Amino acid sequence: MDKLIVLTIKKTSQLTALIILFVSFMSHAYQVQPMSAEIQPVGKMSQYSLRVENTDSFPLTLEFIPLRVSQDKYGINTLSPADEDLLVIPMTAVIQPGKTQTIMVRYLGDPMIKQSQSYSIEINQVSVMLADQKDSEVSLAFNFKTLLNVVPSNAKANLQPGTFQKDGDDWTLEVINSGNRYAKVTETEWLLSDGINSARLDRKNINQFVDGKLILPNASRIFKVKQIEGVDMNKAKVEINWNER
Question: Which residues contact 43 (CB under 8 A, 6 or more apart)?
């Protein structure tokens, strides 16, 4: 999941001061590890620890919200409450400057799931008041969303290319995942060939040409692909290799 940062402004007297404050706080706030994790639906591997470090100079009050992730073919996420599937301890925490809080996340959902399911742990910071409230009030809230995939044993992704067509100045490729495990574009290798010239996209450079990452199981996803120099994209065909870890 991408990092989401929310800036809430109640009142400010000088735009320049606001920009300076925002840039300053962008370089501080807190750090979250890992931003992406994978666990199993049963056993010792059905939980993991989320570590949040307060890298700022004041205490942080954070809340942790479990969410279920679904996604349409264009990569638009829909989030819904997942309290019955995930146990998060603690659900709120006050972290002192320079300290680290460990959050335990345990899967409590169906232990017999047939395909991987994606979740997100949303981390919301309670707004912090800055400066003299008599002159100006700026409320900053830094919110993160992490990605968690619950994957049953022996689950596999099965990726095939679908329709490849021009879309404005770019192209779109439909990727079909008929397997029961999620996949990430950064774990695939694409070979584009126009019959004369070809280009290989792998985890080293695929992010330069392809927008988006996650491909859910038993679903299709449409990715936007940028022009690749030296390849006639109008005649190109695409092969996909799944580099499973």
Answer: none
